């Protein structure tokens, strides 16, 4: 017999042996004892764990104070979330002594605040018609909105450096805090408005009375009061429905 024939016979024998081994293994699995409740599957698989996020709060869409959102615009609460995050970044930046570090989140927070002001006046309509600027008179703490808008206009339109750092800190404060404050400059130190009008002069008066010389962090936090008030009337949150009982 040739060497090639011997090799072929050995390979066939090996194949037959492997087939027999697989058959024995398959038989042993089928004859393996099972409990009555065991599933009729050959391999036991662990249950797949599925992570489900908690349900989000529902919005009440039938509230009488809501003007319909048209044109796929974002809602008031979306803008409010952006404002909150910008204020948090500003508060963190106030630990720094660099005015550039502080200016950037201030610029962002001021622009969010004006977007909220505009959407509130166009969509809050308790009696069927938008309140326009009068919404500030109905919301608690609304008086500061006009003052902050004045600051935003100088920062956004005239690129004003509206804050100045002063030594010392107002306490009590939440840790960590720095031993300095970033305060609003007096109006006379800001670039003048390009087109003075009666509403603008009223806003400048609010700025001088409510903001000038005060820590900027206070006004930005105070704005959350009227904005939260409007959010609850435009898009009131309903409690989440109870989770279904599981056995």
What can you see in these coordinates?
- The protein has 247 residues and is mainly α.
- The protein has a domain at 68-232.
- It has eight helices and four strands; from the N terminus they run αβααααββαααβ.
- It has a two-stranded antiparallel ribbon. Strands 2-3 form a two-stranded antiparallel ribbon.
- Helix 5 (143-157) crosses helix 6 (198-210).
- The termini are far apart.
Tell me the fraction of residues in β-strands, as a range.
5-15%
**Order of strands side by side in the largest beta sheet?**
1-4
Form type: globular
Tell me the series of helices and strands, N- to C-terminal. HEHHHHEEHHHE
C-alpha termini separation: 73 Å
Low-confidence stretches: 1-46, 56-64
Quaternary state of the chains = single chain
> How many individual β-strands?
4
Helix content: 40-55%
Q: Overall pLDDT, averaged? A: 79
Task: Outline the biggest β-sheet.
Answer: 2 strands, antiparallel
Which class of secondary structure composition applies to the elements?
mainly alpha
Radius of gyration: 34 Å
DSSP helix count?
8
